[in-house]
Amino acid sequence: MIDRQPALIAQCAGVADIISAVRFATEHDLPISVKGGGHNIAGRAVEDNALMIDLSPMNSVRVDPEAKTARVEPGVVLNELDHETQAFGLATPVGYNSTTGIAGLTLGGGWGWLSRRYGLTVDNLLSVDVVTADGELVHASEDENEDLFWGTRGGGGNFGVVTSFEFQLHEVGPEVLSGPIVHPFEDAEMVLKEHRRLAAEAPNEVAVWFVIRHAPPLPFIPKEWHGKKVLILAAFYGGEMAEGEKILQPWRDIGDPIADAVGPHPYAGWQQAFDGLAPAGNRHYWKSHNFLEMTDGMIETFVEFGETIPTELTEIACAQLGGAINQKSVDSTAYPHRDAEFTMVLHTQWEDPERDGECIAWAREMHEAMTPHATGGVYANFVPEKDGDQQAAYRENYGRMVEVKTKWDPENVFQLNHNVKPTA
Predict the structure, then answer these.
(1) How many CB atoms lie under 10 A from the CB of residue 130?
(2) How do residues 216-240 score in pLDDT, each as one tens digit?
(3) What mean pLDDT do residues 389-407 have?
(4) Residues 371, 357: contact at Cβ < 8 Å?
């Protein structure tokens, strides 16, 4: 779906290459796009007649097991990070698809299975090194260039090219209690109401998400259900195994599930469990909403649009947030959505280009139907259009974002992103 032709691609092996690329682009008045993992749904990593700064060759991870920190280069994808940190039984909260790039995930905020316990990816960011618009390398943390550090924690690629991320790690795994519980779609309303009740009282170690989709041909799902519509509860417990079995049991007791694969799994394996449901090369269109609670009206809408899912690859997904994420103040980072308890992702996916109009229209229609229940905020990483709604993404923090942008990138050199324009 993204078909753009850069003028040049600079494949960077290190900081010196990034500095050279930024200076070359500004000297020759070339737009700059930045590619980390190449996962962004709007295709912002590539632009016609631009210089693409490709960071994918920079994929080293250095773990300090004593300090429980990791220094991560911007070309790293999540399974590479987990591979290194799990060697020491450590992890930091990251996303739920292991082919996602750490750079784009972090700069947008970053949440996943560990976030209710340990916060967002940006809440575990200790420092960054950034090549700025004038081609200089600067270090930013809570103690140095604090405004820039604040902006990188949720402000996207607006302020420069991050060359290194330093993360706080936590003791996780190597095994965690996790797994899917699969229900017939006809039971969706009942299951979601029970899930809502249990989620309201869940400790921070718990994250239970749900997905409405056609059952994929996975080995734990009986063959007669493959391709039929189901509701899947994806359950995770990030604490002690025996305690987790007690706490997750009420979710496992809901209704009469088709399959229940909750059990001890390698943490790194759980992080990769759903990768196969979004293979490279398919067509995608995502829409997202944040919610303070799950209302009856929302549940009715989930079921209504579950009936009309346009393709077998499409998912209506809803993640449980809250917990440690919401214990930070709105202005503590550029990421502002500290009130959301749930976030919906309409992961519309298909293969035939002739179905583009139909699939995109379905996602937009469901998104519109959910709007009355939503906060009005949106996770910047889930905006599918090249030009999205920055006010919805940054909300109360937008004004401060403009100030930081004006200081660090007054000419808007870095604009192929969820762009905040500097003051003229």
Answers:
(1) 23
(2) 998 899 999 999 999 999 999 999 9
(3) 92
(4) no
Contact between 61 and 124 (Cβ < 8 Å): no
Q: Compute the Cα dihedral for 277, 283, 289, 295 and give only its sign.
A: negative
Mean pLDDT of 168-182: 96
Size of the chain in residues: 424
**Dihedral of alpha carbons 187, 190, 196, 198, sign:** negative
Separation between Cα atoms, residue 391 and residue 378, nearest integer Å: 9
Query: Is the pLDDT reported for residue 386 higher than 80?
Result: no
Distance CA 54, CA 75 (A): 8
Paired strand residues for 213: 230
Rounded average pLDDT over 187-195: 98
Distance CA 47, CA 45 (A): 7
Q: Nearest 5°: CA angle at 409, between 406 and 411?
A: 90
CA-to-CA dists, residue 347 to 21, 116, 178, 194, angstroms: 34, 22, 22, 24
Average pLDDT of the chain is: 95
Alpha-carbon distance of 106 to 95, in angstroms, equals 9
Q: What is the model's pTM?
A: 0.95
Q: What percent of the chain has pLDDT over 70?
A: 99
Q: Is the pLDDT of residue 390 over 90?
A: no
CA-derived radius of gyration, the chain: 21
Q: Are residues 233 and 253 in contact, defined by beta-carbon separation less than 8 angstroms? A: no
Say what the pLDDT of residue 305 is.
98
In this predicted structure, the answer to whether residue 385 has a pLDDT above a threshold of 90 is no
Contact between 411 and 22 (Cβ < 8 Å): no
The CA-CA-CA angle for residues 298, 230, 217, to 5°, reads 145
Q: How confident is the model at residue 41 (pLDDT cuts 50, 70, 90)?
A: confident
